[in-house]
């Protein structure tokens, strides 16, 4: 079964208020040496047993639905098939 | 015969009833449209209302874009049919690529609901022709994801082409260049974040300025009919 991970991140020029809020909270943990925090989404997709063109299909899913190219970038990572124990 | 304005109900739409009432008070006939029905039943214009279509899953408007009705709305918009999207409807129009840019979390992360003062920047759209450019209006705003963003080139093009339709006088969400509403190139598709449909009666709204949008589209439609 093919497993694909899609990471979706706001483009660097788009303000990420969630990341800013986290950054603002860090001093309360005693962490004062962080320059920037940005928050994105990780999407895990599991394809059917016999699915074809998994990477191509994942790119379509990411580009058309998971990410909005106006504000977000994405990366697609196809996880290597687990090797069956003999 | 009065113009028929279709109002789409998505799962999670909230302001479809108010939009229908505004259309009725403005002198047009509201027609209920359904997200899962590709037919738009001969309407003359379409209103995409506010709310939380599909629970705002993934991103506001992202799922609604793929609904049956939106294929038809997109085709009709390309033919020149007036289409307006308010709040979540604006988000749906951006996600559908009928309008440029995107609407993201308010810069201060808080949901903001209060009347918003807006300047009508252009009378050259199907939905603002009855206003004089520069008119100040007051519509209720109520959103958590209303910050308009686009790249600089897009913003410059919008300004240059007179496609910034509404601008905030007191920017409530961090929108770039105080933009509250924009139009497509042809001016038949308009999206705006605050709610004209909640500003149609003195009893319940901060103004009755919202009726101006209905008057505009009626004038636009009758102009088209007489051509």
Commentary on this structure:
In chain A, 26% of the residues lie in helices and 24% in strands. Chain A is of the alpha+beta class. The mean pLDDT of chain A is 92. Chain A has a three-stranded antiparallel beta sheet, covered by helices on one side. The two termini of chain A are 18 Å apart. In chain B, helix 1 links the parallel strand 1 (4-9) and strand 2 (29-34). Chain B is built from five helices and eleven strands, in the order βαββαβαββββαβββα. Chain B has helices at residues 16-25, 68-78, 88-95, 152-160, 211-226, and strands at residues 4-9, 29-34, 45-48, 83-86, 102-104, 112-120, 136-143, 147-149, 164-168, 179-183, 189-192. Chains A and B meet through helix 1 of A and loops of B.
Labels describing this entry:
heterodimer, A: 86 residues, alpha+beta, 3 strands, 26% helix, B: 227 residues, alpha/beta, nine-stranded mixed β-sheet, two-stranded antiparallel sheet, 5 helices, 11 strands
Main sheet characteristics of chain B: 9 strands, mixed
Strand order of the largest sheet of chain A: 2-1-3
As a whole number of angstroms, the C-alpha radius of gyration of chain A is 17 Å
Q: Ends of chain B: how far apart?
A: 17 Å
Q: What is the β-strand count of chain B?
A: 11
The coarse overall form of chain A would be elongated
Helical amount among residues of chain A, as a percent range?
A: 25-40%
pLDDT < 50 runs, ≥5 residues of chain A: none
Oligomer: heterodimer
Strand content bin of chain A = 15-25%
The CA-CA distance between the termini of chain A, in Å, is 18 Å
General form of chain B = globular
The residue-averaged pLDDT of chain B reads: 96
Number of helices of chain A: 2
Low-confidence stretches of chain B: none
Quick one: biggest sheet of chain A?
3 strands, antiparallel
State Rg of chain B: 16 Å
Number of helices of chain B: 5
Instruction: Output mean pLDDT of chain A.
Output: 92
Structural class of chain A: alpha+beta
Secondary-structure element pattern of chain A, one letter each: EHEHE
């Amino acid at each position: 079964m093919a497993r694909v991970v899609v990471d979706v991140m706001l483009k660097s020029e788009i303000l990420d208020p969630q990341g800013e809020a986290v950054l603002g909270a860090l001093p309360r943990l005693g962490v004062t040496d962080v320059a920037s925090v940005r928050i994105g989404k990780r999407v895990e997709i599991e394809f059917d047993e016999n699915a074809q063109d998994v990477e191509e299909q994942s790119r379509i899913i990411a580009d058309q639905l998971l990410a909005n190219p106006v504000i977000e970038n994405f990366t697609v990572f196809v996880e290597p098939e687990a090797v069956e124990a003999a | 015969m009065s113009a028929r304005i279709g109002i789409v109900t998505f799962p999670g739409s909230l302001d479809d009833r108010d939009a229908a009432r505004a259309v009725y008070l403005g002198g047009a006939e509201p027609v209920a449209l359904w997200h899962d029905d590709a037919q738009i039943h001969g309407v003359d214009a379409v209103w995409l209302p506010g709310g939380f279509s599909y629970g705002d899953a993934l991103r506001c408007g992202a799922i609604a874009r793929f609904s049956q009705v939106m294929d038809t709305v997109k085709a009709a918009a390309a033919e020149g049919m007036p289409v307006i999207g308010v709040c979540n409807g604006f988000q749906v129009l951006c996600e559908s690529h009928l309008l440029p840019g995107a609407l993201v979390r308010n810069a201060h992360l808080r949901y903001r609901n209060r009347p918003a003062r807006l300047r009508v920047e252009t009378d050259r759209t199907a939905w603002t022709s009855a206003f004089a450019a520069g008119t100040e209006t007051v519509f209720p705003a109520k959103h958590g994801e209303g910050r308009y963003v686009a790249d600089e080139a897009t913003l410059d093009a919008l300004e240059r082409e007179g496609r910034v339709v509404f601008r905030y006088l007191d920017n409530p969400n961090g929108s770039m260049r105080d933009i509250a509403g924009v139009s497509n190139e042809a001016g038949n598709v308009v999206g705006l974040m605050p709610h004209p449909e909640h500003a149609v009666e003195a009893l319940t709204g901060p103004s009755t300025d919202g009726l101006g949008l209905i008057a505009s589209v009626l004038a636009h439609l009758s102009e088209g009919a007489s051509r």
